[in-house]
Specification:
This protein is of the alpha/beta class. It has a single domain, classed as Arginase, Chain A (3-Layer(aba) Sandwich), CATH 3.40.800.10. The chain has an 8-stranded parallel sheet with strand order 2-1-3-8-7-4-5-6, with helices on both faces. The two termini are 13 Å apart.
Length: 330
Amino acid sequence: MTAPFHQPIDAAVVPRFSGHATFMRLPAVSSAEGLDIALVGIPWDGGTTNRAGARHGPREVRSQSSLMRRVHHVSKVEPFAIANIADVGDVSVNPIDLADGLARIEAGIAEIVAHGAIPIAAGGDHLTTLPVLRALAKERPVGLIHFDAHSDTNDTYFGNNPYTHGTPFRRAIEEGLVDPKRMVQIGIRGSIYDPDEHRWAIEQGVRIIYMEEFVRRGPADVMAEAREIAGGGPTYVSFDIDSIDPSMAPGTGTPEAGGFTTREAQEMLRLLAGVNIVGSDVVEVAPPFDVGGMTALAGATIMFELICLIAQLLAQSRDFRSRTMAPGEP
């Protein structure tokens, strides 16, 4: 890896409101070649069943991410000093053809993975996670730590349509992309269509932690279980912004009362330090329903937490390799 790594624009030199909007004010690059972490937008909401608008999420998350600084104030991780990170732009999408849209997203993420970079995606509705997993998990299924108000393991909508933002994880399990016994869903709540709506997921081995259980147990206990479920294998982290209470994140397609605070969300992510995260996303930010950019800011903040986690993981793995490899080993 060549040095120095890409660096964000300094807000003390160039004001946050000036210049082109990129994730974390990092350089915009055309390829993930040479990157450790690729920040990518997926401006597509072709799977939305209620309020459309998440296609506009990546642009607004980029804008609000100008508020992120260089160093995590708790872990002291300085991600841009220990990993090469940049904004690789948006994947190609097709807003009027669902099948082609999914194929384009998969191809865009596959290109990132082929360069050896870890993708952190900003959606987009939650169906975008399915093609991301298709690109990431071709060789082996991954574990999944999933923050959401909804399980997204329904089968079909509107007749026999298997592809909506309410079905991606059922499809991912069926396609062998996710190991359901290494999958945990945290924060599930709200009214459901049928008393047995979650039965299929539970029968596959998915651990569902409803919001009421989360409130009773607290973040530390819940995340200790999540870490145990994920184990040491490759794990994907998917964060639906509607897991946060709509009083703090109103700009989303299917809001549900009674969610996490943003502070609880940050705490839970920090408790994932050391988990073998091979990719992640923040989805369902819908700016047309936002208030003062607060949902997009929450999305950008979650992205920064994920960047710090993955950068720290990469630094630790390099340090371990440097201490264990034989002299002269490349």
